[in-house]
Design brief:
This protein has about 400 residues and is of the alpha+beta class. The protein is about 25% helix and about 25% strand. It is built from nine helices and 16 strands. The radius of gyration is 27 Å and the shape is elongated.
Amino acid sequence: MIDLVRATLKSTISAGLFLALSSVPVAAFDTKARAAFVVDQGTDTVLLSKNADVPLPPASMSKLMTLYVAFEALRDGRLTLDERLPVSEHAMSYGGSTMFLDTTDRVRVEDLIRGIIVLSGNDACAVIAEALSPDGTEAGFARYMTKRASEMGMKTATFANSNGWPAAGHRMSMKDLGILAERLIEDFPEYYPLFSEKTFEFDGRAPSNTRNRNPLLSLGIGADGLKTGHTSEAGYGLVGSAKQGDRRVIFVITGLDSTKARAEEAEALVNWSFRQFAKKTIAKAGVPIAEAEVWRGAVRSVGLVPAEDLEVLVPALNSGEVNAEVVYTGPIDAPIQKGQQLAELVFQPDELPEVRLPLVAANDVAAGGFPVRVKTAAQVLIKRFLNGPEEAM
C-alpha cells in the first residue's frame, strides 16, 4: 500500500514550532532595474526576481568569472600570488578601465587580481586569461569560462572575452551572476576580503583610477563586494553582497541609467532585504516533529526529526499562523536507518517561495520477524477480500 501521505502537524506540536506570520504580506520591491535578482544566502530564499533568467550584456560584472577561474588556479597550484605574468600587445590594447599595463611589464598575480577587483582592469583580465587559457589566447579562455560556468549551474552564461568588453554573444543572466557571486563567497573565503578593498594604487600609474566603484562599501550597511559594471548597451549594474548579523544577502541589478541611480537602488535593496525579512529557527535538530507509518517493521511507526536546526526566512512583522505539512510516501518499508531522509516539512510564508525542508528518521527500525510478516500478509489478504485487490496495494 503506497500512498502520498500529507500529515498536517498536530496543534500541540505546531504551537511550539511554527511562526506567527503577518496577515499583511510584505510588499514586493519595485525595482527600477531592467533585471534584478536577490537571494538570502543562508536560506537560499529568493527575495526578488525580475527578468532574472534573461541573458543580458553583463559588462564588467562578468569579470567575476575570470576571477573565479584565477582563484581555482591558485588553489590548484597552477598560479601563485607572487608569480609575475607578461603583458601581451593584445592585453595592452584594451581601452576603458585599465591598469595602464604595457608590454615591458611583468605583473604579480596578486596585483592583477586586485587590479581587476578594485580598478576593473580590462588589461589585467586579458593577462590572466592568456596565462590560463588552454590555447594561450583570450578567446580560448572565454570558451573555457563558458564550459566551466555551465558545469557550475549557470544556464545562460556565454563569454566572448575575459572582461565584459562589448561583444556579440557575451551574455549572462542576473541569476547566473547571483550563482557566481555565491560560489565566490563560499568557495574562496581566503580571497573574498579583497572585494571590500576601497582603494588600490598600482605603481603610481593611474591616480585617477585607484578607487573601487562599488558605492556601498563606505555606507556601514555590511556591504563587502563584489563588482560593478557599465557599458552603453548594458547600462549601470552591480553584483553586490552585504552581511548583517548572521544573514548575508546577494543581489544583482542591471540596466540603471546612472551611477547615482545604481547607488540608490543598491542601497534601497539591501535595506529592504534586511528590514522586511528575518531568519527564524522553526525546529531544532533531533527534536521529533511527526511520525511516519512503517511497513513490515519491528515497530509500526518512526519519528521524523530535522537532521539540523531548520532555519527559514519569513516576513519580519508577524502575527497569525502559517499552515505546514509533513509530506512523505508511505508506509515506509523497513528496515530504516537512523538519519535516513524520509519526509519533507512543507510550508509557504507570505510573498515568499514554498519552503521544503528534509526530515529524517529519529532512530533505526529493524525489519519485523516472521510473526510480523505473517500478520502483515494476513492484513493484506483481509483488506483485499473486503475492498478488492486495488485497495490493498
